[in-house]
Each structure stands twice: as structure tokens, then as C-alpha cells.
Write a structure and sequence with these properties.
The complex is a heterodimer.
Chain A lengths: L1 H30 L5 H12 L2 H18 L1 H10 L1 H22 L6 H26 L4 E2 L2 E2 L9 H25 L2 H28 L12 H27 L2 H23 L2 E3 L3 E2 H4 L3 H28 L17 H6 L9
Antiparallel strand pairs in A: 1-2, 3-4
Chain B lengths: L14 H42 L2 H34 L2 H35 L6 H30 L4 E4 L2 E4 L2 H5 L4 H30 L3 H37 L1 H8 L9 E8 L4 E8 L2 H6 L23 H30 L7 H9 L3 H15 L4 E3 L3 E2 H4 L5 H32 L12
Antiparallel strand pairs in B: 1-2, 3-4, 5-6
Helix pairs in contact in B: 1-2, 1-4, 1-6, 1-12, 1-14, 2-3, 2-7, 2-14, 3-4, 4-6, 6-7, 6-11, 6-12, 7-10, 8-10, 10-12
The chains are: A mainly alpha, B mainly alpha.
């Protein structure tokens, strides 16, 4: 019982990570197709104030899995070693790139490319992680016993492409919501095109899941109904996003994408729970003893509303459209850059 | 699949694989450690400086705050991304270890993430970019929360690491550590000594960085108000904390390493036989033959330092007193310890000279001393890495002391895969280190913002 609750927290962490870091990885992916240097810079600035809070969710996801389902963590990570390490490499590059661009008055081309490429590779790697996991992990007596490239399969190629597309759509929607002028228009246009590819890819991948090591379990009937309802919600929300990209209002596309992502992920959990590491490791077989779970639920669980508050506050302080009011800054200098650059002479207080 | 039954045996794992996984972990954690070693202390320093500004409204404090937060920002970001790597490596390279210790270490690190990691990540945005956007009092509160976060983070991490040194509050069930008493697990026997030791170490490291930059400006005659204030504060902090640290370090050795981990003391001292009363300064170990190919020591001194026996009659235990398969590697512990200890002697000298100069009112004018302090800028970080090498290599062959061997904790990976990722980490981290050092040098060269009201000198 405690383990099931804790699995809910793990699912929450994964969802929060996909929602939050998904949009900023997506903005990085879109940046690769943006020729204009100033617009590239403003895309990075939009990410700069919130990325570390967003990325913290993947750390909490990892630790929650370790503390609550240690046997799953210990078997899953070695199995997904290569894509996970490549993801970590890319996250290092893009994190540092964000700070280096922010703290420089110019926009160094190398760092803005590092941000874009890092985001793309991280998204691809995460797609392979999901695909490799669903495809099944060879576990013998609780220890990973497979090979380095087990994660690579046609199915995981599809999950990788789907992940990139979904993140890019989320990035476009967030950009449309947060920016103005050319950046906003370009985001809306590319969001629409990407959505056309994203929806069929995700649907094909979802149906394909039935043929992996984690076949969808749609019995009893209530479970099947819940699953298909969630799929319908996701598709309808994607339709709303389509309208949002085309006609506005500005926030509609992002709301639509977020709803679709939540519905899609919950459908996945409904479809495969209690399986954690297919084909055999389940919540119960991997769960930590109750002493650990109680401590986690009380200690970590109680702090999660606080974590939500920190995330909300970080977004709240920098709410609204991202603009470039130039009066306090040299031309080309953005708010984030100005805050950590030396401001020679007349400072505002 | 059942949770019962012991973990898969590690008998067929190649020693190369384990060595590569250890090297990768060592490099990634040493790189990660470099940044918290600076940013924990800097966050406390920044909160104190902003507090001083709030009280006095002297512009020099704002100038100090704005300058140091620029260095803090990039250092913190590097610490975050390098720390994310560590969280995953526990499972990536040490899967069986993660499965065995998850019920104890998972919740402890989980507490670190929710109480510290998110607290810092949430308020650092406001601290760095909120100048002029939030009220001064709010700004001060955000600075304090970030500092609190970094200290809480240190606390939890040291609890987890100390538990691996002196495990407590658990029972073994089918090869898994299961919590029986959280109080004993968190406040395990070595934690009360190791936590303050580490906390002072990071504060001192940051103080040496701040002092070094102040010394550079004093020597160059630039931004003098800024330079004097930061140099005086940091050397003052060092003068107070360093003697405390030497006392604490001695107690870490005496109260926990000596009684709980005799093999580590043996490796630190480097003796091979238990009949010598010398203190060894330099050795070239030959582990296979259990001897030192080269050995230079001072007779009598070992008895005086180790046993506090001035008669010279006490001998220091040597490796022959430890079972061969439980001996720790001498390279890491012996030289790690000396890196830390000799480093601390330099730091102690700097602290005492600063006191003398201050009493003689020469602190801001003795340029030879400023040069000395500039060179000491990285000494705190170097000593921390040395101390960490001592603690971790001296713990071998154990991952969890006395309970779980390193060879039984490693993931079953292909050696070539780990070599490839290790090379990748090395290249990326060397690049990042170069970028970071370049950034700090550029920031220091370009100097702090000029004051709105020129206070003095330039």
C-alpha cells in the first residue's frame, strides 16, 4: 500500500519533469532552426530563470526511485547506461551554455549551439531510455545481466522520435505564450507543423507498446475505460493546441499541450502498472521495506507542496511576456544578462 | 522474480571493470566537489554581505554582493549539473550497491533533494536576477534561504557518506540494508565529527578564494574599498575557523577513524610492519609485496604524533596487523592525507601571519603577503579533495564499511562501455574546468562595478 502511494509520487516526479524540462528542452531543439541571433538569445533568456528548478525534478525522480524501489533502480540504470550517460553529458553542456550565454553581453555562437544540440541529444537519449525500458530489461537475481546496446531497438527509435517531437511542440507552445513579435509567430507556425507529426508518432508508439515487454493491461473493464478516456482527452487537448497555435489566445496552445502530456503519461501508468521494470520487476517485488517508505512518505512527501511553491514562485516572479525593455541596459543586453553583468556607473536600486 | 534470495554474485566481474567504475566515480565526484566547496561558503558570505548592506546601506557592500554573485552563479550551475551526474551514477555504475542500500541512502538523499536542492534552485533565480525586482528585505531573505539550503545539503550528504563509513540503525535482510532506527542511521557514529569538519572545510575554502581576489586588488591598487573589506573579512574568518578545524581534524582521526577503521589509519601512516616509531614523509608503495620500495621518515616523530608519547617508545601499527584482503591502498590514503595536512599547515601559516599583520596595522600594505595569499586561492579545495581521497580510498575494500564490498556493489557492465564514458567525462569536465577558470579570471580582471559614490582611492 505504502509502495503504491510512493509509486504515485514517482509518477508525479516523472510527469512534472516532462512538463517543465520538456518545454525548455523543446525550446533548445527549436533554437537549432532559428537563424536570427537576437531571437536565439531571447529563447535562451526565457529558459534561464527557471531551468535549474525544472531540471531538479529529474534528480528527485531518480532519488525517489532509488529510495522507494531500490531493486528497480539498481537493475534499470545499468541497463540504460549508455543513453543515460549521454543524457547527462548533454544536460551538462546545455546547463553551462545557458549560464555562459546569460553572463555574456554578446551571444557566443558556440554556446547557443551547445544549448540547442545539448537539448536535442538529451531529448533523444530520454526517448531511448523510455523505449529501452518498455522493451524489457534482462534481470537475473535482481541484477542487470544484459548488454550495452540492449536499449537499442526499432521501438526505442520510435519513442526517441516521439519524445523529440513532443518536447519541440511543448517548447513552441511555451515560446508562443512567453514571447512577442517574430519569435511568437515563428513559434506558432512551427508548433503547428510539429504537432501534425507528433500526434501520429505518439499514437503509433502507444499502440506498439502492446507488443513490447510491457503489454498494456486493460482489464478489468474500468481500467480499459480509464485508459481509452485518457487517450481521448490527450487527442482532444492536442486538437485544442492546434487551434491555439493557429488562432490564439496565446496561452491556449500551451494549456493544450500540458493537458495532452498529463493525459498521455497517466494513460501509460494506467496501462502498465504495477510493472516498473518490464518484463518482471513490479512495484511489490522492488519496494523498499516499510521503514524506508514511511520515512519517504512523511519526510519527502510533506516537502513536495513546498517544492511546488518554489517552482511556482520562480515562474511567478518572471511571469508575463518576456520583453526587452532597454532603458536600464546597454543595447542587446537582456534582463538576465544585466543582472549578473557589471553595470558600470548609474545603477538602479 | 522475487525479492528474496541474495543478489547475483559478482565473482565473474573483471577487476578492470571495477577499477574503471571507481575511476569514473572518483573523477566525477572530485569535479562535483570542487563547486560546492566554493559555493556553500560563498552563499553564506553573500548573505552576510547583503545583511551588512541592509543594516548600513554602505554602497561597498552592494558592490561586493554584485561582484561575488557573478562568480557564485556560474559555480552553482556547474555544481548542479555535476551533482545530477552523481545521483544517477549510484545506480548506473553501482546498481547492486543501490539496490542494497536504497532503503537507507535513498531516503536520506531524497531529503537532501527536497529540503535543500529545490530550496536553492527555487530562490537562486531571485537572488541572482531579482535585484531591483523585489524589495531589499525579500532579497535578504532569499539570500539566507539559499545559504540555508547549501548548509542543509552538506548536512544530508555528510549523513549519507558517514553512514557508509560507520553504518548504524539497520539490519540485513537478504543482502539489503533495512532501516530499524533512523536517528541512529542519520546521526551515525562518525557524523558528529565529520559534518562539522566538512562544514568548516567548505567555509575556509570559500574564504581563501575571497581572500585571494581581495589580495589581487590590494596588490594592483584597484577597487581598494572593496579589496580591504573582503580581505579583512575573509582573513578574519580564516583566523577563527582554522584553529578550530585543526582541533576537529585531530578528533576525526582520534574518535572515529582510529577505533572504527584501523586499516585506514594504517594506510594513512604507510608503515608495513608494526615495530617502527617513525613518521613517514615519503613512500613508494609496493602493495603486492607489502613493502615500501622507498621510505623516508623521521624517527621518534611517529610516536609523538600518533600516540602522543614523547618517550618515542610507542610504535605505529603497520599493514602486517591487517588481514591482506582488508588492507586499504596506501597511495590514496597516505598522499591524500598529506595533501590535506600539508595544505592545512600553509593555511595555518597564512592565518597567523594575517593576525600579526593586522595587529601591526600592516594587513593592507604587505604586498608580499598578498602575493602569498593569491597563490593560496585553491588551497582549500585541494585540501578537501585530499581529505576526501583519504576517507574514501582508506575505506576500501568496503563500500559500506564492514558490510558490503566494493566488488559486490558494481554494475555488470561491459568494461569498454565504462572506458568510453569515462573518457567522455574526462574530456567534458576538463573543458568545463577550463571554461570556469577562464570565466573567473575574466570576471576578476574586469573588476567589481564602480561605486555610485566613490568611497576611496580610485
Amino acid at each position: 500500500m505504502a509502495a503504491d502511494f510512493w509509486f504515485g509520487i514517482i509518477a508525479l516526479c516523472l510527469t512534472m519533469y516532462v512538463l517543465l524540462d520538456g518545454y525548455d528542452l523543446g525550446i533548445g531543439i527549436l533554437l537549432l532552426g532559428e537563424p536570427n541571433r537576437e531571437r536565439r538569445r531571447s529563447m535562451i533568456e526565457i529558459v534561464a530563470t527557471a531551468w535549474d528548478g525544472n531540471e531538479s525534478w529529474i534528480v528527485l525522480l531518480g532519488v525517489s526511485l532509488w529510495g522507494g524501489l531500490p531493486a528497480a533502480y539498481g537493475a534499470m540504470l545499468p541497463a540504460l547506461y549508455l543513453p543515460l550517460v549521454i543524457m547527462l553529458f548533454s544536460l551538462i553542456f546545455r546547463g553551462v551554455a545557458i549560464e555562459m550565454v546569460s553572463s555574456s553581453p554578446r551571444t557566443p555562437a558556440v554556446w547557443s549551439f551547445a544549448f540547442g544540440a545539448g537539448s536535442l541529444v538529451a531529448a533523444v537519449a530520454q526517448g531511448f531510455v523510455i523505449g529501452g525500458l518498455l522493451n524489457g530489461v534482462r534481470v537475473e537475481r535482481q541484477v542487470f545481466a544484459g548488454g550495452t546496446f540492449d536499449f537499442f531497438a526499432p521501438f526505442s527509435v520510435f519513442t526517441a522520435i516521439s519524445t523529440v517531437l513532443v518536447y519541440a511542440v511543448a517548447g513552441a507552445a511555451y515560446l508562443q505564450h512567453k514571447s512577442e513579435g517574430a519569435t511568437e509567430h515563428r513559434a506558432a507556425a512551427s508548433g503547428r507543423v510539429l504537432l501534425v507529426f507528433a500526434v501520429p508518432f505518439v499514437l503509433i508508439t502507444a499502440l506498439w507498446t502492446g507488443a513490447t515487454a510491457a503489454p498494456l493491461q486493460l482489464h478489468p473493464t474500468a481500467r480499459g475505460i480509464a485508459f481509452w478516456l485518457l487517450v481521448v482527452v490527450a487527442v482532444v487537448a492536442a486538437g485544442a493546441a492546434w487551434i491555439g497555435f493557429a488562432r490564439g489566445p496565446d496561452s491556449l496552445a500551451f494549456r493544450g499541450v500540458v493537458t495532452a502530456e498529463i493525459a498521455g503519461l497517466v494513460a501509460l501508468f494506467v496501462g502498465i502498472a504495477p510493472l516498473v521494470v518490464p518484463p518482471d520487476v513490479t512495484i511489490d517485488s522492488a519496494a523498499a521495506p516499510s521503514g524506508a517508505l514511511t520515512f519517504l512518505l512523511i519526510g519527502v512527501g510533506i516537502n513536495i507542496p513546498l517544492v511546488f511553491f518554489y517552482n511556482w514562485y520562480a515562474h511567478h516572479v518572471f511571469r508575463g511576456k518576456y520583453r526587452l525593455p532597454a532603458e536600464h541596459r546597454p543595447s542587446g543586453m537582456t534582463p538576465v544578462g544585466a543582472a549578473i553583468r557589471p553595470t558600470k556607473g548609474g545603477d538602479r536600486r | 522474480m522475487t525479492s528474496a534470495g541474495p543478489l547475483l554474485a559478482a565473482a565473474d566481474l573483471s577487476p578492470d571493470l571495477i577499477a574503471m567504475s571507481r575511476w569514473q566515480f572518483a573523477v566525477t565526484i572530485a569535479f562535483h566537489m570542487t563547486f560546492p566547496a566554493i559555493t556553500v561558503g560563498l552563499s553564506v558570505f553573500l548573505a552576510a554581505v547583503y545583511g551588512a548592506y541592509l543594516r548600513t546601506h554602505k554602497p561597498v557592500y552592494l558592490q561586493i554582493f554584485r561582484f561575488w554573485k557573478r562568480i557564485f552563479a556560474v559555480g552553482f550551475a556547474l555544481g548542479v549539473v555535476a551533482g545530477t551526474v552523481i545521483t544517477f551514477e549510484f545506480g548506473l555504475n553501482w546498481g547492486p550497491f543501490a539496490a542494497a542500500t536504497g532503503p537507507i541512502l535513498g531516503p536520506i538523499i531524497g531529503m537532501e533533494v527536497v529540503t535543500a536542492f529545490f530550496l536553492e534552485a527555487g530562490f537562486i533565480g531571485v537572488m541572482l536576477y531579482g535585484d531591483g525586482r523585489v524589495r531589499e528585505r525579500t532579497m535578504f531573505i532569499c539570500c539566507c534561504l539559499v545559504a540555508l539550503g547549501t548548509i542543509l545539503s552538506t548536512t544530508w550528504i555528510l549523513a549519507a557518506n558517514s553512514w557508509m563509513q560507520t553504518p548504524a540503525g539497520y539490519r540485513m535482510v537478504n543482502g539489503q540494508f533495512q532501516p530499524t532506527n533512523w536517528w541512529h542511521a542519520i546521526f551515525n557514529p562518525s557524523f558528529p565529527w565529520r559534518f562539522p569538519h566538512m562544514l568548516l572545510a567548505v567555509l575556509i575554502s570559500a574564504a581563501f578564494l575571497v581572500a585571494g581576489v581581495g589580495a589581487y586588488y590590494l596588490r594592483a591598487g584597484r577597487s581598494l574599498a572593496f579589496a580591504r573589506k573582503t580581505f579583512s573579512w575573509s582573513m578574519g574568518v580564516i583566523a577563527i575557523l582554522l584553529p578550530m578545524q585543526l582541533w576537529l581534524g585531530d578528533n576525526v582521526a582520534g574518535y572515529y577513524v582510529g577505533p572504527d577503521q584501523p586499516a585506514k589509519i594504517v594506510a594513512i601512516e604507510g608503515h608495513r610492519v608494526s615495530t617502527q616509531n617513525s613518521y613517514l614523509l615519503f613512500v613508494v608503495p609496493d602493495e603486492k609485496a607489502n613493502r615500501n620500495a622507498v621510505e623516508i621518515g623521521v624517527p621518534w616523530l611517529g610516536s609523538a604524533i600518533g600516540a602522543k608519547d614523547l618517550s618515542g617508545k610507542s610504535t605505529t601499527p603497520g599493514a602486517d596487523a591487517v588481514k591482506p584482503d582488508l588492507r586499504a591502498n596506501v597511495w590514496g590514503s597516505f598522499y591524500g592525507f598529506r595533501m590535506m595536512f600539508y595544505g592545512s599547515m600553509f593555511m595555518f601559516a597564512a592565518a597567523m601571519i594575517a593576525v600579526v599583520l593586522r595587529l601591526r596595522r600592516r594587513l593592507y600594505y604587505a604586498h608580499w603577503f598578498h602575493t602569498f595569499v593569491m597563490w593560496l586561492m585553491p588551497i582549500g579545495v585541494i585540501a578537501i579533495i585530499g581529505g576526501w581521497m583519504t576517507a574514501e580510498t582508506g575505506r576500501q575494500p568496503w563500500l559500506v564499511y564492514g558490510q558490503l564490498r566494493t566488488t559486490d556493489g558494481a554494475s555488470h557492465l561491459a568494461t569498454g562501455t565504462v572506458i568510453a564514458t569515462f573518457v567522455g567525462f574526462l574530456l567534458i569536465y576538463l573543458t568545463m574546468l577550463a571554461v570556469w577558470i577562464g570565466y573567473v579570471i575574466r570576471t576578476v580582471r574586469s573588476g567589481p562595478d564602480t561605486l555610485e559614490v566613490p568611497a576611496d582611492g580610485r
